[in-house]
């Protein structure tokens, strides 16, 4: 039976950026790594095979979406999410908490961009109690309770390699008193998650052939460093395989970098460290320097479906293919790119696909953006290995 | 420079079904063959590479759509449609006439199903004159004239291997007098098309590297056998490489089979014979027996996008994956199928994709349906070779 392990192979000279290997029963992840979002058990416009061809190491699915559609039982009956969606590499599932809360509050990345607002009208969140989060299903309107125990039970059935405790993702707008109360409740939920995890370890659909699952704790505390300290201490003293940094990271990039640096600096080398929901290229370079090992974000595939291709040479780091200036542009999405899209298609053709509402366009840009992110992560890893991180970083943002 | 040729290798014992090879500068087509519709220079949910992996020999694009978006100049500037869309195999373009008329009348297949009606309100057809068809662009509302000469000029720029003359596609509802008048005008348009074709043979974007283009005439005459005779005579006496059977084929399957048999029977062996717009599996088996070499239809990919997968063993020849009975069905779309979808995904998973509005579902069923059609055509060819056509046909509709 394959086992889990976490090994730091090298730390950047005069820095905190680190090169690691996270081994799972479904294969190794070379870190720093990007985790692509297969929210509903699918990478939207592309297949897992296509993602693998473009160097994807690990994907993430969402407990919240899958518990509602198709329901965890359907997935478990297939032998787990790997088999259900035909992805045989490493996989992570979140706990469902983030979606329940973010559907009410808006997303973390929106908050950092200053556009996060609490929207009571569109919120599906009904109540947060000691027991868990009660919400209204967007499928049939029924009222559901997601408790820490139930989140782990569902994640056992989904069968991802890496799973998360249920937490409340607090917002920047929350007062310190609420952030503190919420954090303490999230810690109590974490202990319940750990208990359920420990007692249900043989529950994984194909335990035995593919090994067990490993649990990540989540550090809360918002923008308050004393609370972050408290949450770091809680997470380090409990038996988590990995540690994720969650909750609000502030309302500006500077605040985000500050909080992540403050937090990651205290976590040392025993755990792989995941930063939840952050994935802009520059943020990744900056936060790898803080010691983050894995990142996830819907950005690369979401913007692809809106016509935006990631590029390293243009000032904004992306081009929108719908812009009429690309109508006759016979360059690839990114000049010099070796992805399956750029080797075969021009900007002009992909512009045509978007103008004509042809969905192949979504596939082609998604593939490019996935390749781009994976190439960037590979460059990050090589530059840590070669101790030329800063030079290589500069070459990506010239 | 590669050349065109058409060779009949074998005719079914005691039948008219025939095995042929149609050679083009972009490769050979083993016939009987199915031509998949890449209407706007794209096979909708899938890439040309994916179509090729699933055994596609030849695709078709539409002059009407491409002249409006992105415009033939953009395509020509890429060196033609093959390079624009990254398809290096054989390709056919229609003349644009069918779309202009069918947008007014409804499609041929609708007519055969008895649901074709003339819809003056949604028609984009403004006027038919000796000069050509005047219509309103659905892109910008501007008035465009498609003349026989202009259709050929555009098809020269698109650069497909096989191109068609401009014709008016008459409907079942047209009186004999109109059908006759229209046919005679289509013949005059054919002569103009031939003239333009002959004088513009060096116009193809990448003539020289990929060879020339070949022109198909189109037999009109609707359901009137004396008119069909007249159109057959016209087409045979002019210098067309291939011959297509167009116009209305009646309002019932029996009438369609009767007209196609009547027409194909008189065309002998000198030309590859294409039947425009027909592609239901049973129709293909029946009309291969009439001597048809190639077929085209949007059906396999269009129904895929609505959740219908082609199957040989069920009474109706297809299943709709959105049906709730597939929610927990772990069989592949078709049991025993070896396509890239059926080897990897269950009905339950694809049902989930459609329930969750995930566009990968469109890709997965499109790939299955394309594989299915190509496998069926291969079985048809083998059964002509082995003189067991009727037995093999029966095995597809048991």
How much of the sequence lies in strands of chain A comes to 15-25%
Kindly give the count of domains of chain A.
Answer: 2
Q: Alpha-carbon distance between the termini of chain A?
A: 47 Å
Largest interface: A-B, 37 and 37 residues
Biggest β-sheet description of chain A: 8 strands, parallel, barrel
The CATH class of the largest domain in chain A is identified as: Alpha Beta
User: Do you know the CATH architecture of the largest domain in chain A?
Assistant: Alpha-Beta Barrel
CATH superfamily of the largest domain in chain A: Queuine tRNA-ribosyltransferase-like
> What low-confidence regions of chain A span 5 or more consecutive residues with pLDDT below 50?
113-118
Radius of gyration of chain A: 20 Å
Provide the structure class of chain A.
alpha/beta
Number of helices of chain A: 15
Which quaternary structure do these chains form? homodimer
According to CATH, what is the topology of the largest domain in chain A? TIM Barrel
Summarize the model shown:
The structure is a homodimer of 398-residue chains. The first copy, chain A, contains 15 helices and 16 strands.
Overview of the molecule:
The structure is a homodimer of 398-residue chains. Chain A has 15 helices and 16 strands. Chain A has an eight-stranded parallel barrel, surrounded by seven helices. Chain A is globular and about 60 Å long. Helices cover 39% and strands 18% of the residues of chain A. Chain A has two domains: 33-297, Alpha-Beta Barrel (TIM Barrel); 299-398, no CATH class. The longest helix of chain A has 26 residues, at 360-385. With 398 residues, chain A is α/β, with parallel strands linked by helices. In chain A, helix 7 crosses helix 8, helix 8 (176-199) runs parallel beside helix 9 (225-237) and helix 14 runs antiparallel to helix 15. Chain A has helices at residues 48-53, 63-68, 72-77, 81-85, 97-105, 108-112, 148-158, 176-199, 225-237, 253-264, 281-288, 299-305, 347-355, 360-385, 389-396, and strands spanning 5-11, 18-24, 27-31, 33-37, 58-62, 91-94, 125-128, 133-136, 143-146, 162-164, 214-219, 242-245, 273-275, 294-297, 308-310, 318-320. Chain A binds chain B through residues 40-47, 49, 65, 69-70, 74, 77-78, 84-86, 327-328, 330, 344-346, 348-349, 351-353, 355-356, 358-360, 362-364, and chain B through 40-47, 49, 65, 69-70, 74, 77-78, 84-86, 327-328, 330, 344-346, 348-349, 351-353, 355-356, 358-360, 362-364.
């Amino acid at each position: 039976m394959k086992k889990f392990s976490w090994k730091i192979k090298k730390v950047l000279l005069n820095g905190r950026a680190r090169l690691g290997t996270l081994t799972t029963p479904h294969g190794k992840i070379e870190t720093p790594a990007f985790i692509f979002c297969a929210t509903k058990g699918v990478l939207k416009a592309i297949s897992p095979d296509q993602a693998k061809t473009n160097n994807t190491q690990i994907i993430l699915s969402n407990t919240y979406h899958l518990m509602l559609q198709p329901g965890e039982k359907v997935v478990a009956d297939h032998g787990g999410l790997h088999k259900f969606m035909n992805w045989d590499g490493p996989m992570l599932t979140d706990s469902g908490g983030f979606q329940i809360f973010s559907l009410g509050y808006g997303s973390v990345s929106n908050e950092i961009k200053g556009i996060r607002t609490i929207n009571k009208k569109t919120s599906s969140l009904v109540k947060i109690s000691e027991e868990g989060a009660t919400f209204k299903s967007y499928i049939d309107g029924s009222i559901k309770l997601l408790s820490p125990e139930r989140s782990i039970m569902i994640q056992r059935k989904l069968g991802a390699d890496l799973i998360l405790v249920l937490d409340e993702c607090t917002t920047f707008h929350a007062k310190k008193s609420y952030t503190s109360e919420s954090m303490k409740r999230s810690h109590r939920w974490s202990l319940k998650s750990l208990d359920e995890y420990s007692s249900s370890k043989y529950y994984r659909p194909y335990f035995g052939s593919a090994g067990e699952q490993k649990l990540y704790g989540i550090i809360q505390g918002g923008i308050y460093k004393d609370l972050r300290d408290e949450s770091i201490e809680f997470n380090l003293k409990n038996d988590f395989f990995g540690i994720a940094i969650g909750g609000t990271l502030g309302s500006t990039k500077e605040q985000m970098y500050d909080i992540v640096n403050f937090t990651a600096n205290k976590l040392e080398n025993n755990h792989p460290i995941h930063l939840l929901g952050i994935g802009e290229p520059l943020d990744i370079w900056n936060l790898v320097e803080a010691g983050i090992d894995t990142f996830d974000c819907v950005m690369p595939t979401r913007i692809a479906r809106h016509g935006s291709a990631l590029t390293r040479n243009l000032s904004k780091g992306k081009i929108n293919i719908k812009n009429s200036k690309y109508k006759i542009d016979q360059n690839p999405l990114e000049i010099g790119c070796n992805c399956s899209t750029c080797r075969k298609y021009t900007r002009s053709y992909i512009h045509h696909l978007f103008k004509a509402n042809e969905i192949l366009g979504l596939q082609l840009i998604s593939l490019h953006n996935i390749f781009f992110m994976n190439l960037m992560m590979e460059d990050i890893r090589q530059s840590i290995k070669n101790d030329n991180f800063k030079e290589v970083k500069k070459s990506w943002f010239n």
